[in-house]
């Protein structure tokens, strides 16, 4: 039997993830009382049981009983019961936004602000995050992307690393993305905006790509950036980082940054040690066509 404990921060998407696990054949139980976990595993693990894949949701709603989880997990381990822990996380600012959008109260906030409840929850769940086999940061993930990550781990049985990398192009005129970890300025390259016939195209168009990549400086930049990122990522994984946003910016976020972000993505996508996606934040802003 495959036994998974699904846990994480309130608002990070645990309920959605449980539904996704049901879709790939897991028998899911949410908010099972901690005292019943051992008995549930025992029943599910019977030889004549039809339950081959089981997921149990545990979160802050367990209250004081949450303190007993470590003891229960240690007991299961001593009995030779194999289990994996999936921890869903998200940035505090994202969690606050989600609570405001749904107009729900955080279970630990009481009469305080939501961020106070989030801080307390992080402290109470820290031991589970430390024990987790997989950590997925849902801050930047779309529903379909979360589904793909869960499928990769539990359905396709691919090796999974806890780091998810987002390559993000942007325009400095619209501000540096607030969630950036690494920011690179490519305004040193000639700007296609001032070239006849190129102004209203973007970095996804071949004409812009050909223009930007004709300069040796563009390739030198990509070589050095790729080398640095390949050095940093394994160290980020060791350190426990689970979300990395690499932002590449030019003036308007349409030409140079898009082209180089696409090229960096192509260079990194062959690496299977981490999740990878690309976004172009400002590519459609002030869009005009002849």
From TrEMBL:
Keywords: ATP-binding, GTP-binding, Nucleotide-binding. The keyword ATP-binding applies. The gene is rapZ. Coiled coil: none annotated. InterPro entries: P-loop_NTPase, RapZ-like, RapZ-like_N, RapZ_C. It holds the Pfam family RapZ-like_N. GTP binds at residues 59-62. It comes from the Bacteria. This is RNase adapter RapZ. Gene3D superfamilies: P-loop containing nucleotide triphosphate hydrolases. It comes from Roseburia yibonii. NCBIfam families: PRK05416.1 (NF003828). Residues 165-284 form the RapZ C-terminal domain.
């Amino acid at each position: 039997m495959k036994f998974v404990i699904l846990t994480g921060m309130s608002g990070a998407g645990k309920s959605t993830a449980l539904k996704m696990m049901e879709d790939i054949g897991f028998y899911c139980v949410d908010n099972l009382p901690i005292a019943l976990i051992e008995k549930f595993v025992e029943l599910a693990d019977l030889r004549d049981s039809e339950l081959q894949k089981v997921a149990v949701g545990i979160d802050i709603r367990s209250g004081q009983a949450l303190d007993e989880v470590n003891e229960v997990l240690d007991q299961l381990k001593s009995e030779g019961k194999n289990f994996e822990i999936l921890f869903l996380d998200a940035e505090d600012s994202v969690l606050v936004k989600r609570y405001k959008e749904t107009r729900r109260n955080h279970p630990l906030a009481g009469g305080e602000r939501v961020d106070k409840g989030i801080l307390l929850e992080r402290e109470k769940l820290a031991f589970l995050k430390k024990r987790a086999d997989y950590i997925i940061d849902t801050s930047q993930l779309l529903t379909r992307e979360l589904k793909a990550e869960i499928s990769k781990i539990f359905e396709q049985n691919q090796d999974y690393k806890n780091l998810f990398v987002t390559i993000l192009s942007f325009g400095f005129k619209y501000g540096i993305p607030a969630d950036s970890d690494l920011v690179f300025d490519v305004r040193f390259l000639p700007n296609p905006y001032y070239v006849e016939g190129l102004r209203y195209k973007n970095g996804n168009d071949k004409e812009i790509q050909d223009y930007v990549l004709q300069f040796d400086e563009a390739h030198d930049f990509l070589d050095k950036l790729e080398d640095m990122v390949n050095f940093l990522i394994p160290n980020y994984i060791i350190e426990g980082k689970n979300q990395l946003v690499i932002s590449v910016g030019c003036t308007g976020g349409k030409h140079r940054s898009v082209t180089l972000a696409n090229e960096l993505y192509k260079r990194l996508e062959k690496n299977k040690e981490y999740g990878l996606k690309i976004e172009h934040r400002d590519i459609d802003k002030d869009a005009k066509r002849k």
